Amino acid sequence: MKISLNINNSVFEIRVKPEASLLGVLRGLGYYGTKHGCETGECGACTVLLDGKPVNACVMLALQAEGHRIQTIEALGEHPEKGWKASEGLHPLQQAFVESGAIQCGYCTPAQILAARELLDRNPSPSEAEVREALSGVLCRCTGYIKPVQAVLRAAAVLRGEQVEPLAGVGPILAPPEWVPDKGGGKPGREESFSSPAIVSPDETITRKRVMPRIAMAQQAETYASVGKPEPKVDAIKLVQGKPAFTADFEIRNLLVAKVLHSPLAHARIKRIDASRARQLPGVAAVLTWQDVPRVVYSTAGQSHPIPGPLDTFSLDRKVRFVGDRVAFVAAETEEIANQALELIEVEYEALPELFDPARAMQPEAPILHDEPEFVNFADSDPKRNLAAQIHIDIGDVEKGFAAADYIFEDDYEVSKVQQVHIEPHVVVTYWDEDDRLVIRSSTQVPFHARRILAPVLGLPVKRIRVIKPRIGGGFGSKQEVLTEDVAAHLTIATGRPVIYEFTREEEFIASRSRHPMHIHMKTGVKQDGTLTANAMRVLTDTGAYGCHALTVTGNTGHKSMALYVGDGPFRKSPNIQFIADIVYTNHPPAGAYRGYGVPQGYWALDRHMEKIARKLGLDPLEFRLKNALRAGELHPFSTAWSEGREPSPETIETCGLEACASQGRAVIGWDEKFGNPEWHQVAGKSHLRRGIGAALVMQGTAIPYLDMGGASIKMNDDGSFNLLIGATDLGTGSDTVLGQMAAEVLGVPLEDMIVYSSDTDFTPFDVGAYASSTTYVSGAAATRAAQQAAERVRQRAAKMLNESAGVSLEAGVQAQDIRLADRKAFAPDGRFVTMQDIAYNSLHVSDQEQIMGVASYMSPVSPPPFAAQFAEVRVDVETGQVVVDKLLMVLDSGVIVNPLTAAGQVEGGMTQALGYAVCEEMRYDERGRARERDLTDYHIFRADEMPELETIFIETFEPSHPFGVKAVAEIPMDGVAPAVANAVLDACGVQIDENPVIPEKVWRALKKEMA
Ligand code: FES
Ligand code: FES
Predict the structure, then answer these.
(1) Which among 239, 307, 421, 614 is least buried, having the fewest CB atoms inside 10 angstroms?
(2) Span from the CA of 34 to the centroid of ligand 1 (angstroms)
(3) Model confidence over 379-400: pLDDT tens digits?
(4) Roughly what angle, to the nearest 10 degrees, separates helices 92-99 and 109-122?
């Protein structure tokens, strides 16, 4: 039918099907700022304004919009530089989102801005609570909502004509010199000792109106010009405008839509499959079953060669191993036809016995999931016992340690299966280019690994494949898997046509990856004074139907949690630690990588256990932990025992700010006034409520030693700007920005002169991709090295120019090594200078012409751990078991903070994801293995109006193994929230919750049991 749509004051006469959604029509017309995150009106990514009111375009029919005024993000603002044509610049909301660091992946940003616009149109002076309510319809998985809220308040002030303090170029809030005990010997400071740049708003609500985190700077970082500055993200301007930056924002002729038939059974053999009726359906271009694609065994885990896990997966197999497993691929002219075709595929299954209980997996009578002859073992995997991986690590002798203990504490813990819930689903577009090379445009964290893994699966050499990674709308480990690329690529090979395959939200729940659920047994020996004598962890991990990341995720559960506590006194020098794990197959959907990579599971058990021990022995929980915790100068206890299935190598901890983190956090949250104070635990006038406070200490790693590698190249342009090409994958974390800052620091130019591009396997150097908290450290060191090479050429050229203009020889004149680069200039010691632009012109056009550039890579021999203290305050309703988290405070030693704004955003977003893990998120299955949670209604993630107060404090140390002293920040916020919340619940009402998440039912049952 023909309809007329008024979009951003332009009228379109178009033909649509009656069932066409407004979202599909808008995107079809090129309004790519309207995003797809679900199909059911739950995520808000598709928000547009209809007659000024926000609506979800995915659940609105296009014809319902006829006669109304539609506004999309494209109606707002433009880039401030538009050549000879004057630019109106960005809208104040867009500007505020850029300046306030409110954007991480930016996938939800257009929708947030439109929702905020509607609010400010009707209420120019909203309170913070009103802003949060307005944003509550747009889910964000990256930010923790603090900075978007602050951006809206800031824009409101600008729109009211008020003066707002400029943020660009403003540094972080510095701690006074005496604040950190080991810098000045002073006492820990209190929050009142800081002044915060104010954002104008009429009333105070739960979050301080402060964009910058607090930071205690490392002295070595105090002279940097770009490193340490809260620079806006290099991709921010395009993201606030909703430019077509993501994988699906792509136009190409003859594009086919792919769909996958998923298994309804958890374990079955395909006896017969007949796709003939589907193939005959008009508009269907191809249907592929296991009979049509090459049988190549591989692993979907995007890891370095050799992948440290079994090869147990086929693109299509004659056996299915979980509800949601692949049965057939379809490519059709439209999504509707592809869906119809799925229904016409006839499949006869032979049901096989199912296995859902991981404890049964290794029993002799258990059904075997992987009986295929092509299965390739890795290390101790054994498909005949459903064993995807096995780990046994002994450090010292735990039996001796137990014998030396006064007390033995043993307990069991469970951690749940949870989903990454990036708002942009997995999506890929594949096509043959003009050279008949296969182009894979994918929302992937691992473009180079994806290319290597896909080559044999597709029957193409690596050189015939190009993987392009556009902007990514979040990944959190889930996009470290090769899950969709082979589907679209097989269909492009079959049809010769471009194909798009995008997961629905339901597919994200039933066919994607998740965090590994685990059963964890702890046994710990302790002396009366709190000295740990031995610590043992035994883990049973359910990897689901495939063993992707099976070995490495669970290995990290031990490696990065059990390493934190070595004991004290003689035990500190020779700790007794044991870590044993069985990682088993079941007929649940496969688990995989999820931010934290096994470590949040470890800390749930370890830190809950530490809390119990401290309380049983009557010790201060923080002092007890610190007494036994790893310190600077000590050997990482696991470094000689395990390295993700490779040869381990001893590593000494160079920097550890854990004690400072704990003491500052203790002071800022007011631990001593609250912990053990019965008065504070009461809530005035509410006898059914109890307050509680809890803490957890955590550490992570920074990259995988002797394995993670990043490359970078840099070249100078005519105007003295630089192109920085990196293989590193910015999935919304801001890594393009911080890598650009490091290169800019070396070259003495502002970040705006650094044009950063990532990543394309044809053009950017190799990088392992975004995982293991490696990008700032490893890829950052590569970018720094490449910039140092270019800087060396710049200095040589500057010396030559200065000496020529002074009429002196190179030998007699200024030497290259004495030239200092700063403020877009190269300075001689006597103050004379040449500009970067002069140097660029001279080198490209004037004499001894050359391209000034640098190419470098970096592989780290160490993995310096970041450390953190996590605090939580809760209120528990002792009548219903309801837990409300009031505040989360994280104090981190992540080395030098390159960009306080993006780093704080990482911590806030990480704590928010971890909060879901703590109190509400869980994937459950019925007795036939069918997922109960299939959408964002049943699987709840936190909204803007549900958030507790979040606060981040950085205690910088200077990590000597990195040129700018950095350590990782991205994953550690996932580790401590859940145990700190459970410890706070214990503090509030005396109940132990050993299975996460801490839902009201569990608390209520525990309270009842306690009372009985
Ligand atoms: S609410 Fe429309 S895409 Fe999710
Ligand atoms: S920035 Fe909101 S979903 Fe990524």
Answers:
(1) 614
(2) 9
(3) 889 999 999 999 999 999 999 9
(4) 130
